[in-house]
Design goal:
By secondary structure, the chain is mainly beta. The protein has two helices and eleven strands, in the order E-E-E-E-E-E-E-E-E-E-E-H-H. The protein is globular and about 55 Å long.
Length: 177
């Protein structure tokens, strides 16, 4: 994995989104014009996991800030099911709960308070794309805060996961002598 990746994403609703991921240092910053700055940091001294762009899924070893205010970040451990790779973030400031959960091999769905906002794709190298849900009468369109949070979660943890059968087979094969 490259030590520092600076990748601008071109979002159809929010314009250029700057994504700075440093896997070695365990830092991620997402910013853009009109977007709040989101940072994810891995605790110093944490041995980086090469399968996770930010380097760990241990919530005790991670910090999430939005415009300098610390928020709650809870990535699941990731093991046998796609849902086990979910990432939860709660904004006490805004009163919203976010969930990024894999919904295919390559993509993850972003939800705010249980309502779908869009689908993100990230290969884990700092490149992220978003496909936003079309607004309807029952859902509000995505806001700048939603975009910053979605890009940060997707860039920090990647998106997508293998189907459960494949994950179980891989786990069994890892145990095989």
């Amino acid at each position: 994995m490259e030590p520092l990746v600076y990748v601008p994403a071109d979002d159809p609703h929010f314009g250029a989104v700057a994504i700075e991921l440093d896997h070695s240092a365990g830092t991620l910053a997402v910013r853009g014009a009109g977007l709040p700055t989101v940072e994810v940091r891995r605790a110093p001294g944490t041995t980086p996991d090469t399968h996770v762009p930010i380097g760990t899924r241990d919530p005790e070893r991670l910090t999430l800030t939005v415009d300098g205010t610390e928020e709650t970040l809870r990535p699941a451990k990731g093991f046998l099911t796609r849902r086990s790779y979910r990432v939860e973030a709660t904004s006490a400031t805004r009163g919203h709960a976010y969930l990024l959960v894999p919904d295919s091999l390559d993509t993850g769905r972003l939800l705010r308070d249980g309502r779908p906002l869009g689908v993100f794709t990230s290969s884990g190298d700092g490149h992220v794309t978003a496909d936003w849900e079309a607004p309807n009468a029952s859902a509000h369109p995505p806001e700048p805060y939603d975009a910053s949070m979605g890009y940060a979660l997707a860039a920090a943890f990647g998106t997508g996961a293998e189907p459960m059968g494949r994950l179980v087979l891989d786990a069994v094969l890892d145990l095989w002598p």
